[in-house]
Amino acid sequence: MAQSIEAHDLNIYYGKFLAVSEVNLTIAPRSVTAFIGPSGCGKSTVLRTLNRMHEVIAGARVEGTVLLDGEDIYDNRVDPVDVRRTVGMVFQRPNPFPTMSIYDNVVAGLKLQNGRTKKADLDTVVERSLRGANLWEEVKDRLAKPGSGLSGGQQQRLCIARAIAVEPAVLLMDEPCSALDPISTLAIEDLIQQLKTKYTIVIVTHNMQQAARVSERTAFFNLAGIGRPGQLVEMDDTQTIFSNPSDRRTEDYISGRFG
Ligand SMILES: Nc1ncnc2c1ncn2[C@@H]1O[C@H](COP(=O)(O)OP(=O)(O)OP(=O)(O)O)[C@@H](O)[C@H]1O
Ligand SMILES: [Mg+2]
């Protein structure tokens, strides 16, 4: 089910503003890749081009190619809705549908997808997804209660359950732990380790220890200056990035010396 991702010569624009230039990267199936780099260097922007969420923003466009298991997701014949189902996304802030129950939050994507699915089938998906997101035990007795009644960490795991309910091949996570306490953060990190046996995962994080703990590969993005486009400086095995990076800018960033 997991799929590889290849991006070639991505130039990503908001209107006339070139936000990120010349990104080339390859991501292996069933691996965890961390995107790191200073604020504004384009990590979220690049992430959104990997499932065609970038073009949803008015005036935004992308040049270049993104291949999902060798298929160009920007080909004219490809439906962006299919792409977003195959490449799921978890946003930085937990965004459960506030008036929907926990149950309905989990199956929200599924209902859109199939029109009508049998209740028993939905029940199975809900349990499997909530177990997958490490949330089942905490919520199994209150599935009909609103998702907004959960704690921040539980809401983030609910959003992960919603994302995995449709069985994507790739899971993009944009700072999934930025609002979480250390215990919830560790729960999400454990979860990522479990999920990577089935999914290809890309995680944006500002937490270097987290990148070092969860990922096999790390991509360091940087910005040459204000108003200049962000760039992918280097991508390598996580251990190499943190112990012996090729580029001086990477070393300065990971050791806390900027500029
Ligand atoms: N919707 C938007 N419209 C216009 N410009 C945008 C938009 N979103 C991001 N940008 C610009 O694109 C550049 C990259 O932003 P992006 O959000 O990808 O950075 P980031 O690396 O994710 O930063 P952070 O670590 O703060 O989340 C920035 O200059 C930002 O101002
Ligand atoms: Mg961001």
Attribute tags:
Rossmann fold, single chain, binds adenosine-5'-triphosphate, alpha/beta, 25% strand, binds magnesium ion, four-stranded antiparallel sheet, 259 residues
Explain what you see.
With 259 residues, this protein is α/β, with parallel strands linked by helices. Helix content is 36%, strand content 25%. The protein is built from 10 helices and 10 strands. It has helices at 43-49, 80-86, 102-114, 119-132, 136-139, 152-165, 182-195, 208-214, 238-243, 248-254; strands spanning 5-14, 17-27, 32-36, 60-68, 71-72, 87-90, 170-174, 200-204, 217-223, 230-237. The mean pLDDT is 93. Magnesium ion (MG) is lined by residues 43-44, 174, 204.
Major sheet description: 6 strands, mixed
| Count of DSSP-assigned helices | 10
Number of strands: 10
User: Looking across the biggest beta sheet, what order are the strands in?
Assistant: 6-7-8-3-9-10
Low-confidence stretches: none
> According to CATH, what is the class of the domain at 5-94 and 168-254?
Alpha Beta
Just name the CATH architecture of the domain at 5-94 and 168-254: 3-Layer(aba) Sandwich
The overall pLDDT average reads: 93
Let me know the CATH homologous superfamily of the domain at 5-94 and 168-254.
P-loop containing nucleotide triphosphate hydrolases
Q: Any idea what the radius of gyration is?
A: 18 Å
Class derived from helix and strand content: alpha/beta
Name the ligand types: adenosine-5'-triphosphate, magnesium ion
SSE string, helix = H, strand = E?
EEEHEEHEHHHHEHEHEEHH
In percent terms, what proportion of residues is strand?
25-35%
Overall geometry comes to globular
Multimerization status: single chain
Please estimate the helix content.
25-40%
Q: How far from one another are the termini?
A: 41 Å
InterPro entries: AAA+_ATPase, ABC_transporter-like_ATP-bd, ABC_transporter-like_CS, P-loop_NTPase, PstB-like
GO molecular function: ATP binding
Protein name: Phosphate ABC transporter ATP-binding protein PstB
Pfam families: ABC_tran
